[in-house]
Write a structure and sequence with these properties.
Helices cover about 0% and strands about 60% of the residues. By secondary structure, the chain is mainly β. It has an eight-stranded antiparallel beta sheet, with no helix packed on it. A two-stranded antiparallel ribbon has the order 6-7.
Length: about 170
């Protein structure tokens, strides 16, 4: 089993965002800071069956600004998020290299704006994959947002199917 502990502390200045007083214009947040602590566990249960579980706590706040309240949470950043992903790849026989998997990830409630005047709801998204791997080639079809859940994010996507092919030299 592999354990990963993740920590970051990032500050950004002059972040452009929608002006809450004049929605047709943008404004800047002088300084914001994000700190996150996460844990990821990865394990091969039996040969070919891999599992990943992860969780993150993120504290993202306005540190300095002339108009917005210092200490407000940063828009669209959840304090709690996590997920589970598993894949299984057939190890022997005529179907060796064929695999499939799936998982879900959850994002907690988060502010809908820098003023923290409303919250966006938490959501759960489910993804799936089918793939085939040989010695030097891998082909995969990934389905994101498998159940076409409505997700309230700035970049939320509906059901999406992605095909990939890659090779190693």
């Amino acid at each position: 089993m592999l354990y990963k502990f993740i920590f970051f502390n990032e500050s950004q200045n002059n972040i452009t965002t929608l002006d809450p007083l004049f929605p047709d214009f943008d404004t800047q947040v002088n300084e914001q800071n994000s700190q996150s602590l996460g844990l990821e566990l990865t394990s091969e249960i039996v040969p070919g069956w891999d599992v990943i579980i992860h969780y993150a706590y993120t504290k993202a706040r306005i540190v300095e600004d002339d108009r917005l309240k210092v200490g407000n949470r940063i828009e669209d950043v959840a304090e709690h998020s996590g997920g589970f992903w598993t894949t299984y790849e057939i190890q022997t026989g005529a179907l060796k290299g064929l695999g499939f998997g799936g998982g879900c990830w959850v994002v907690g409630t988060r502010p809908g704006d820098f003023e923290n005047s409303f919250s966006l709801p938490s959501y759960l998204q489910t993804d799936a994959v089918v793939f085939y791997r040989s010695d030097d080639l891998k082909v995969a079809i990934t389905i994101q947002n498998l159940f076409n859940e409505e997700v309230n994010t700035s970049d939320g996507i509906p059901l999406t199917i992605i095909g990939t092919v890659w090779t190693e030299f």
